[in-house]
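Two quick folds needed for the group meeting slides. Do the first one here.
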Amino acid sequence: MRFGTVDYVIFVLLLVLSSGIGLYYALSGGKQRTMQEFLLADRSMSFLPVALSLLATFQSAVAILGVPSEIYRFGTEYWFLGCSYILGLLIPAHIFIPVLYRLRLTSTYEYLELRFNKMVRICGTVTFIFQMVIYMGVVLYAPALALNAVTGFDLWGAVATMGLVCTLYTTLGGLKAVIWTDVFQTFIMFAGQLAVIIVGTIKVGGMGEVWRIATESGRIADINLNPDPFERHSFWSLAIGGVFMMLSLYGVNQAQVQRYLSSKTEKEAILSCYAVFPCQQLVLCLGCLMGLVMFAFYKQNESAELTSLRSPDQMVLYFVMDILKDLPGLPGLFVACLFSGALSTISSAFNSLATVTMQDLIKPYFPDLSESRATIISKILALGYGLLCIAMAYISSFMGSVLQAALSIFGIVGGPLLGVFCLGMFFPCANSTGALTGLLAGLAMAFWVGIGSFVMNMKSATVQLLNSTVSPEAGNFTTAVMTTLLSTAPVRKSGLAKFYSLSYMWYSAHNSTTVVVVGLIVSFLTGSMKGKDVNPRTIYHVLPKLLFFLPDKYKENLYFGVRHTKEESEQTLEQTPSPEKTTNGLINGDIRGEDSADSEKYDGYSRADGGHTFVVHETSL
């Protein structure tokens, strides 16, 4: 199972073309001389490349390796995750995108300062940085490790190559290069997966035969309607818990929101969310079909080597090399597919990390920073995070089974961040104290459950190993524990251990709900925020839209004193200010943020050089 010359050529072409795209955008157009161009692609992108970039950002190598492995081991129940994509993309399209796009932000976490205060913004930014720094190291190391184990590809050569190429085109070409390389890499991912599915299906004897073998072996799952939240996968955990997971990714994550903000118009941003829906369904189908084909193939051709693999993630690469070894170029295509998944994810991480660091942690404290110097610093930050990513991959190599915990942290941290944005957008009464306390409580709950679950499973796996008749060698003990963790069926637990067995699909829902509940309680105890003190652009009025059939005089009460947009006011107020007295469709009034010492009454909002510029104009209705 070694690469041939054609395979290496295809793989090198991927890296060369990716670097070429970065170089092209570094030397064309505005040559990435402004922050607007480097961080937001000059707000000039159309919906289709943005949609494909949204897809590629979290379609990492971990997913390409993990979904087929999941289907191979547990059956098609995971496929029901596709049900969550409907609400998981409609809600961002019609709630999060309009609110965030109209504020003309660069960093998502600027919203938290506009709605609450600077401390909440900094906490949100630091949480995101922690999340992405850990995750991008794992995303870089995990596929390189699997590739090394199965094909003999040099481990650190792969890590360094991916890290440096990605750093190169991200630093040179900015967000525009990242988006267009994502588009290119998305097609490579589709091509690689399709090649494996087609060749595998032919070798099994057709898709009908694949389905027959999977059905007879119990791999085609029925709808599991068990409402137990401790059930690993059920229709409810996948279809409802999955919605919260999707919202944490497509609603408030900087890597995704930055792509919405790069769109030419709000309409283009919304269209990108719609366009990514069928793409997500296609990606899920390809992963699931690959898992079924892999299962059917090994049902017909049993392999002793498959059971001895160190990690289930290696199954897919082993399968690929098994069926494509006699077809020059195709193994190289799939490896290019795998590395495309890793490149698209970590390039998005570099760019988004550089953005939030500049906008949230540097620029507020150096307001006189010139545009050219800020752009240079942003490029240095992207380069720095690229090198940090390679360092994190090196550290990941010593983590052993902690790799699985690091992957869970990405999902664990997303829930509290979703919660604090929901608290701000949907609850005008929430204040900054409640938001900060809720975020910290959500993070504490998330890590308690997540790490507690991992530790309990580690103990269970260790006990099983110690009770076995053959003990692993000392040097391979961590690997043996990891293999046991990933291959054993869940054990029935009680008490606190039962609490730790909460399905990972409910993590985002559980943790975001914790933030909202704690945030509201603390806000009521410390003095709820008054509607007139809330920036109306930071609020999405859910109740007036849901209860649209109510008479106007009752519906007006559902705004809780928050000044609202002109379009909504025309439905609820007898007299509306003339266009001359409004700016951007806002009724004149107080839209200041809480805890602002120099807050004034504003009726307009605009952006200048990435900072906040308010048009002062005190009026009343």
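Then this one, please, same format:
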Amino acid sequence: MKVQNLCTFSKHILTLTDSANVANIIQNYTKTNQLKKAKQLHSQLIITGYPLCTYLTNHLINMYSKCRELDYAVKLFDKMPVRNLVSWTAMITGFSQNQNFVEAITTFCNMRIAQESPNQFAFSSVIRACVSLGFVEFGRQLHCLALKCGFGCELFVGSNLADMYSKCGVIRDACKVFEEMDCTDEVLWTAMIDGYAKNGDFEGALLAYKRMVNEGVVIDHYVLSSTLSACGALKASESGKCLHSVVVKLGYELEISVKNALTDMYSKVRDMEGSLNVFQFDSEPRNIVSYTSLIDGYVEMDQIERAVNTFVELRRQGIEPNEFTFSSLIKGCANQAALDQGIQLHAQVIRFNFDRNPFVSSILVDMYGKCGLLDDSIRVFDDIDKPTEFAWNSLISVFAQHGLGNEALETLDRMIHRGVKPNEITFVSLLTGCSHAGLIDEGLSHFNSMEKTYGVVPREEHYSCVIDLLGRSGRLNEAEEFIKNMPFEPNAFGWCSFLGACRIHGDKERGKIAAEKLMQLEPENSGAHVLLSNIYAKEQQWEDVKNLRKMMRDANVKKLPGYSWVDAGNKIHIFGVEDWSHPQTKEIYEKLDGLLDKIKEAGYIPCTESIPLNVDEQTKGKLLHHHSERIAIAFALISIPVGKPIIVKKNLRVCADCHSAIKYISKVVNRKIIVRDNSRFHHFADGLCSCGDYW
């Protein structure tokens, strides 16, 4: 500033007759964020010897805090000879607003030591600090103090208390605070709805929204965003569409948070047309959340190509992906076992420095495992500095999918030793791994220790895993007793596991009971009819097979067609049973026939029991020879170079005959073949399978 300007400025200061005028100027600079001018004013006050009373110092502390110059505020506060309630409150608020949460709590405690009684603003600021730090117990103490000081039902304090309890996962206490309030406003309602949604009580969020509307409380974009999130989680399509109408009526359709919530809601209810319409409504308010919501929807719909295309588009727009974008895309690759795309995304993850992100790394562990590359999955896990429960669960799940029960158990021991507590998901994977590996006693032991040792209450899926564990091993009597003693009826997966075990071990009577139960739960599921038909066919009860097929026709139940697919040349090639549609059909079937001759010479004998048809053995053998997984393997052998893994995926359980044939194929062609069916991986090499013929 020039000398003349300084003189003018000094004269202006000297004409001030009282502190109120100076305070007003400081306040105006604070509101307009004019830090430079505020500092000049502060300098002139010091130079001219203007007395900095407590009143003015409080305004300066508030100004520096709000302008994010906290060091200046702290120095002023520390030098104050006399502090009042406003001084303490300004400092606590300054620390809280600048994310110095521990200092905010410490200053509040020092205020109490100084025997200063807090006001509603001090309470609100320190409660917000507790929210950010997750200090719910200290928050409870503040709640008690607020009640003692007469602020428990004050709207500002109550809103922050409800927000703290809900964000810390104590939704019951949040509800108590809410119900005890004499009056409520949109801030308190928003805190409750957001709390319900974030704690997984989505129905509670919708009910709270309806109460809010009925009481005539003003609806804002925060409320709409949280309620739309609840609709998406509940797959409540109609409620979501009604809220969309409210959004349009209130003019919030261009509000970015609401637009993102709408895109996400439509994606979660599997209405991608609606999601795309919202997304494309106006190109201006779009960010990474908008794109990630759309990608999530495509992934849920198994439309991985569209998800990847959306990713390409967001990069073209100059938007940088975040960890949620990558997690969703990699999850899609894992579900589709799209290895090539997954590897490319892994490269992008490294490029954007998300390879150390625990969430993204956990998804990568899962992706490589689901694509059959067990060693790569382990390598990614080993590169994680501090594995979270997500990473440990991913690795245990990978071992389970590959039938490596002992490795899954060892990983659980390592997880516990590293101080990470197992949860419900951990035990589902662990029990699955024990089931596939035939580790009956170990599986039962861990099931029985879930609640006693780890405080994890077994749920439906855990009981279903035990049914599968006992049934797969042939202990059908024990499985039946276990079902009778369960605290609830088995779910569809439980009955399906029991029915599958009855088919493997030829127990017709128990199989009929299981099939009837499964048909009651899922009348449109063809699995029960097919498995029961296989049991009858094995016993050559062709009349019963015929009756079952008639029952399926009458009920319009269609058998799920088996198909297999394989990645080659950056393209997914899909094959059905006796599939003649591929452009390379001639070469594929020539290879397939050549393989049959070779494996027969090596000792292969068709296992025709798995064909539930009353036809001659030669016809059965021909049908088996043209199963989708064999066609896919023949194609892979002529398309994928030696040295690259052959990974075939199938939507149904691989049949006993194909399992036997692939073992022989791996031997005669001297290549490793990995097959992922609907329950696990099989690694075939040199005439053997990793499952040890136990699957």
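Slide caption for protein two: The CA atoms of residues 32 and 552 lie 74 Å apart.
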